[in-house]
Amino acid sequence: MSGISKTPEPPYYAVIFSSQRTEGDKAYGRMADKMVELASQQNGFLGVESARDEKLGITVSYWDSLEAIKNWKENSAHKVAQTKGKTDWYKNFSLRVCKVERQDFFEM
Predict the structure, then answer these.
(1) What is the mean pLDDT of the segment spanning 14-18?
(2) pLDDT tens-digit profile of 60-74?
(3) Which residues form the signal peptide (predicted)?
(4) Helix or strand or coil: residue 22?
(5) Is residue 31 a contact partner of residue 42, using CB atoms and an 8 Å limit?
(6) Which residue in 43, 85, 87, 95 has its CB near the most CB atoms, within 10 A?
(7) Are the C-beta atoms of 98 and 16 separated by less than 8 Å?
């Protein structure tokens, strides 16, 4: 995951996942990569951006509809990752779903 996602003209939806990790990897990195790969294959997926430092991680995924977000949430492999997140990987997290109504991009 690198760079800024090239999303279509709004409206579309953003899922903002902010988290603080527990100590140690515990196979987190491998699962995170797998989830991005799997999400990118889902109908309605538009892109993803992610950043993490030692204290906070933020991942924003973009979707064309609320139905696409719901289908991703219910994906069986994603459900396994959600459970592992609660038991092994996160001290805390928040998830916000937003409708994108306007966007601007700058590029040199």
Answers:
(1) 98
(2) 999 999 999 999 999
(3) none
(4) coil
(5) no
(6) 85
(7) yes
What is the pairing mode between strands 57-63 and 12-21? Answer: antiparallel
- Yes or no: say if 81 and 31 are a contact pair by the CB < 8 Å rule: yes
Q: What is the mean pLDDT of residues 26-46?
A: 95
pLDDT number for residue 107 = 87
Tokens at residue 106, please?
């700058």
Measure the CA angle with vertex 62, ends 45 and 44; round to 5°. 25
DSSP 50-104: EEE-SS-EEEEEEES-HHHHHHHHT-HHHHHHHHHIIIIIEEEEEEEEEEE----
State the pLDDT at residue 31: 94
Instruction: Say what the pLDDT of residue 2 is.
Output: 61
CA dist., res. 105 & res. 89, Å (int): 33
CA distance 12 to 3: 19
pTM: 0.93
